[in-house]
């Protein structure tokens, strides 16, 4: 804490010395107090877009959006800038609502007393509390248990893993009646009755009762309070079955695919939209000399998440085992550890799950993926209930599509998928530049998922003003990560139901020429796609550069780009973006390393909710130079977070409802 205070104090002093004595250096509170003053000419528009600043070096991220600039844009809008929502009659209330969120917990943020009066008219409350989470045992606790008691548990864990591997091998090769095709979900689902008949053995208590009846006499009765394998099916533990199967072809050879699945770091990176945290708890068996993964057995912990702080992550502890079935076929199997190391707080029990990998010609892999889980969804906000209870949120199909999308990146290097290039992209090393761009987009996706997941490390707090209870914020301090701007950043997330079909929302948000219609920081500019790289498998999966052109051909203003990736899976549709200045784009497209490009990712996820509606979850990341310490959220930041969400929702709804009304 002292180091962060020292850094921020020095940074503030440095910036103060660099400031010129003009009106732009006025304190933020003076800007807020001058809301009633009339803005002359284009000053309001310039304040809205003054984040498009000069850049000092090719890989600098001076395009990073800042809370202060968003604050200027929003206060200008309050002063009388036209609101697009006025174009739509009978528009629904644009407020944010997400029932079921918990607003209790330990305080984390604080406001200074002298700031409080400035938000009184918004119903500001000094209490800012962490979104409540279960006190789940951390991975380090289980690591200690596995390490200390390895010899005690090792034989049981090995037997458990081998049995799970054999069960999975049989399941992936079975057809009906074990697997039935669900026409609504467009995927194969498990026939639970057939599964229990084939694979579920009677627990020890029931076996003793049957033996007692068969023998016709008394025997030593078991302890009925003992641990039973399926004890978790009572009302307070997981009882909902989510089991499905998916088959697909992945553009990677089997050896590399197996290596990815057995490497916790790579696995969590490839599936970052689903795995918010993963830990290797211990390697129990090592592989052979030829391939260290074949025969390897490791205990793991992971958290599975949806892209919203409102939905609690699923925390699972399991063992993963890899075996080679023949010269060209591999099996990677997971199974929960609760039957060996009891953990009554776990709300997701992983029955034998995993994948069968078969090598094909030309370095391809045929993968059959099985998910077989017993879960407890618990308290879920109504707007997410359909996604979770339907079983598609963590279905085998979603795992498969995510893996396919990751390896499809190699196919998008083909030039025929490009649109015509714009300056400053011409006459560059396109092949290597494209690779750098796609690599940067992949890092952007991983960063977004890490910031906006609901994992236990992300301390989300509801906004402490009236109407902001379902808008969540958190701050983070970066001192040494070169891929993220240095200083304190504020992340804002909210979910809202829209009376608009999922695909309509997705197509509107992903279109480059629509960016200026909903993004407050490019509102009033012209935006369009300068470069568009589509997936060979699905054109909806694409990486693009959206150019923001200065208004009226202003030569004194620099162009800026948004790096954007849009993609879909069996659950939702996603648009992730981050601003990058023109010099950084030129630097990347020349084939130079993009690791030094610092960026803050923002984005949207669009989930289905009734045929005529959808759930839009927004995530905004902005730098805040005025935060003195990470725990302090200034009043203008609270105001900006609230208005940024509500105004963005209004602009999106206005554009889409206006479009639908004219069709």
TrEMBL record:
Gene3D superfamilies documented for this protein: 3.30.530.20
Region Disordered: start-end pairs: 1-49
START domain location: 150-412
SUPFAM superfamilies, sorted: Bet v1-like (SSF55961)
Alphabetically ordered keywords of this record: DNA-binding, Homeobox, Nucleus, Transcription, Transcription regulation
Keyword Signal recorded: no
Name used for this protein in its record: START domain-containing protein
């Amino acid at each position: 804490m002292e180091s962060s205070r020292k850094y921020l104090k020095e940074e503030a002093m440095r910036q103060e010395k660099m400031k010129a004595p003009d009106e732009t250096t006025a304190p933020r509170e003076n800007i807020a107090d001058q809301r009633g003053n009339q803005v002359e000419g284009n000053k309001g528009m310039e304040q809205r877009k003054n984040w498009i600043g000069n850049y000092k070096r090719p890989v600098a991220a001076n395009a990073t959006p800042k809370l202060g600039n968003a604050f200027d844009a929003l206060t200008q809008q309050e002063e009388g800038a036209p609101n697009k929502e006025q174009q739509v009659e009978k528009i629904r209330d644009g407020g944010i609502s997400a029932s079921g969120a918990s607003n209790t917990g330990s305080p984390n943020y604080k406001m200074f007393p002298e700031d409080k009066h400035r938000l009184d008219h918004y119903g500001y409350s000094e209490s800012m509390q962490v979104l409540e989470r279960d006190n789940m045992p951390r991975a380090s606790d289980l690591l200690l248990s596995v390490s200390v008691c390895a010899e005690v548990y090792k034989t049981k864990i090995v037997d458990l893993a081998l049995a799970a591997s054999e069960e999975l091998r049989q399941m992936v090769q079975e057809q009906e009646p074990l697997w039935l095709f669900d026409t609504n979900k467009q995927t194969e689902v498990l026939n639970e009755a057939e599964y229990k008949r084939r694979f579920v053995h009677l627990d020890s208590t029931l076996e003793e009762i049957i033996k007692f009846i068969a023998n016709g006499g008394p025997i030593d009765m078991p302890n009925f309070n003992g641990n039973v394998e399926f004890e978790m099916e009572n009302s307070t533990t997981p009882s909902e079955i989510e089991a499905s199967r998916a088959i697909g072809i992945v553009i990677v050879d089997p050896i590399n695919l197996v290596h990815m699945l057995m490497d916790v770091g790579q696995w969590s990176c490839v599936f970052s939209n689903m795995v918010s945290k993963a830990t290797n708890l211990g390697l129990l068996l090592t592989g052979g000399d030829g391939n260290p993964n074949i025969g390897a057995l490791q205990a793991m912990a992971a958290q599975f998440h949806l892209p919203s702080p409102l939905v609690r992550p699923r925390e699972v502890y399991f063992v993963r085992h890899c075996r080679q079935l023949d010269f060209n076929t591999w099996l990677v199997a997971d199974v929960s550890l609760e039957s060996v190391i009891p953990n009554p707080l776990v709300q997701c029990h992983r029955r034998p799950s995993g994948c069968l990998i078969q090598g094909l010609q030309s370095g391809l892999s045929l993968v059959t993926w099985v998910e077989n889980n017993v879960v407890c969804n618990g308290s879920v906000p109504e707007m997410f209930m359909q996604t979770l209870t339907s079983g598609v949120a963590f279905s085998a199909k979603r795992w498969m599509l995510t893996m396919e999308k990751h390896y499809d990146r190699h196919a998008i290097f083909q030039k025929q998928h490009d649109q015509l290039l714009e300056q400053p992209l011409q006459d560059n090393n396109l092949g290597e530049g494209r690779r750098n761009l796609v690599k940067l987009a992949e890092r952007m996706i991983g960063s977004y998922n890490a910031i906006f997941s609901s994992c236990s490390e992300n301390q989300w707090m509801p906004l402490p003003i009236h109407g902001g209870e379902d808008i969540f914020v958190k701050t983070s301090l970066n001192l040494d990560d070169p891929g993220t701007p240095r200083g304190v950043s504020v992340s804002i997330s909210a979910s809202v139901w829209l009376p608009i079909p999922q695909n309509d929302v997705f197509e509107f948000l992903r279109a480059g020429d629509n960016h200026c219609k909903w993004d407050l920081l490019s509102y009033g500019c012209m935006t369009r796609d300068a470069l568009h790289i589509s997936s060979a498998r699905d054109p909806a999966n694409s990486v693009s550069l959206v150019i923001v052109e200065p208004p009226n051909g202003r030569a004194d203003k620099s162009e800026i780009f948004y790096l954007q990736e849009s993609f879909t899976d069996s659950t939702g549709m996603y648009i992730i973006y981050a601003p990058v200045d023109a010099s950084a784009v030129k630097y990347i497209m020349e084939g130079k390393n993009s690791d030094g490009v610092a960026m803050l990712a923002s984005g949207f996820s669009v989930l289905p909710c009734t045929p005529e509606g959808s759930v839009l979850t927004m995530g905004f990341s902005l730098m805040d130079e005025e935060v003195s310490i990470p725990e302090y959220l200034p009043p203008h930041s609270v105001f900006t977070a609230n208005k940024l969400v509500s105004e963005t929702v209004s602009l999106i709804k206005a554009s889409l409802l206006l479009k639908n009304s004219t069709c």
